[in-house]
Design brief:
- The strands form 2 sheets. A 6-stranded parallel sheet has the order 2-1-3-4-5-6, with helices on both faces. It has a 6-stranded mixed sheet with strand order 9-8-7-10-11-12, sandwiched between helices.
- It folds into 2 domains: 211 residues, 3-Layer(aba) Sandwich (Rossmann fold), CATH 3.40.50; 176 residues, Glycogen Phosphorylase B (Rossmann fold, 3-Layer(aba) Sandwich).
- By secondary structure, it is an alpha/beta fold.
- A hairpin with a 5-residue loop joins strand 11 and strand 12.
- Helix 3 crosses helix 16, helix 4 packs antiparallel against helix 16 and helix 8 packs across helix 13.
- Helix content is 43%, strand content 14%.
């Protein structure tokens, strides 16, 4: 791509929970700092998502008649919306479109090819299995993935040279010193912080960890567990916790917190997946990755590359007995036998791989790969492609319901 100064860039996103919106903000901060103009179209039904972008960009929000796509809509309403989005894109004709997620990339890639606008897809590290209908039809010119797992899946549908893996996306707020002194206080009580969206797709991993923690706990050590995160299953989690009966485990539901640094500082052990565990690990805290099936694995230099391949997502964990793993971690914390050098080396590896400090050069290298050469105009009328998009969306929803 012939890089232009003061580009007009459009981010077309969708509702994404967890760390994805914050991660992509690091990309946008760099672009805006370099003088490019940013506009964002993002589904607003995710609580706090619009406010997150408004705090960062005074140019947030697109034309008022562009409505959200991924809600429960009738066939005709969805088709009408796609028509609106195409007209708005044709009118605005930005210099570059960033499509956040495979579904926006599916339809915006085709729009952009028709209008000769470069389109770069950004995949935020999630599990892509089951979304072949979108990936097969994608016409983006380049893809940015957050993990090697992304690259492996995307390479089935596009050329490998059209994929760039950029895990760097976390702006480190602080780095705690005095690790040995802090961990020594775990003799009195082990403080564990679990950070996660409390929503469908995440809820089971939370309750299974709490169940296994209660099974691992005994009179040798007191445990304080704090759960930080909001979502539509927060009240259900509170009800579940109220029914626990374990004298050795105290559980506190914190809900959504804007600033997690004090919680990271308090914790002797951090538990979660993706950004939730990576951020505190980068700040010199021992961490464990949890999976939806109850598996758990401590973050160490020895397994770092394997965890990295799956974006610390909880997939690909090696764990035969999660209760035994938790009990072993608790014993080492309570007995003040944690190898602090291992914790610090894991932290160094995480910062090297994930810190936004090293993002700029990689981001522009990916954008430079976007193809700005004029494309041949498609012979398929736009209206037929809009019908195709609507049909594929319907088929994908039906496929997901059957799972």
């Amino acid at each position: 791509m012939e890089r232009k100064e003061n580009m007009n860039i459009l981010l077309r996103g969708m509702s994404l929970s967890g760390g994805a919106p914050k991660s992509v903000l690091e990309h946008l901060r760099i672009l805006k700092r370099d003088g490019h103009r940013i506009n964002v179209i993002m589904q607003e039904r995710e609580q706090g998502l619009k406010e997150l972008y408004e705090r960062e960009f005074d140019s947030f929000s697109a034309a008022p008649d562009i409505v959200t796509l991924f809600t429960k809509r009738a066939f005709g309403t969805l088709f009408t919306q796609l028509c609106r989005e195409y007209r708005e894109l044709k009118s605005a004709k930005p210099d570059l479109v960033l499509a956040l997620g495979y579904a926006p990339a599916f339809f915006y890639g085709s729009f952009c090819k028709e209008l000769q606008i470069p389109c770069v897809m950004i995949i935020p590290g999630g599990d892509l299995s089951g979304n072949e209908l979108y990936l097969k039809g994608g016409e983006w010119c380049h893809a940015i993935g957050f993990s090697e797992e992304n690259r492996e899946v995307l390479s089935r549908y596009t050329h490998a040279e059209s994929i760039t893996v950029i895990p760097n996306r976390i702006a480190l707020k602080t780095k705690f010193d005095g690790l040995s002194e802090h961990l020594a206080t775990a003799r009195n009580a082990v403080n564990i912080l679990l950070t996660s969206r409390v929503a469908s797709g995440k809820y089971d991993s939370i309750t299974r960890f709490v169940d296994n923690l209660c099974r691992a706990a005994d009179a040798r050590v007191k445990i304080n567990l704090a759960v930080a995160g909001g979502g539509d299953k927060l009240e259900q989690l509170k009800e579940y916790v109220s029914g626990l009966d374990n004298p050795f485990v105290n559980v506190e539901i914190k809900g959504h917190l804007d600033n997690l640094v004090p919680e990271f500082e308090w914790a002797h052990l951090v538990v979660g997946k993706g950004r939730s565990v990576l951020e505190p690990v980068m700040m010199n805290r021992p961490g464990c990755v949890i999976g939806d099936d109850g598996r758990i694995e401590p973050c160490t230099p020895e397994n770092f590359e394997r965890l990295y391949r799956h974006n610390f997502s909880g997939r690909g964990l090696v764990c035969d007995d999660p209760v035994a793993v938790i009990r072993g971690v608790l014993d080492s914390l309570a007995g003040n036998s944690v190898d602090t050098e291992t914790v610090l080396e894991t932290s160094r590896l995480a910062r090297e791989r994930y810190s936004a400090e090293f993002l700029r050069e990689k981001l522009y290298a990916a954008l430079d790969s976007a193809d700005f050469r004029p494309q041949k105009k498609m012979h398929v009328p736009v209206i037929l492609r809009l019908l195709k998009f609507t049909l594929v969306r319907f088929m994908q929803k039906m496929k997901n319901k059957k799972k």
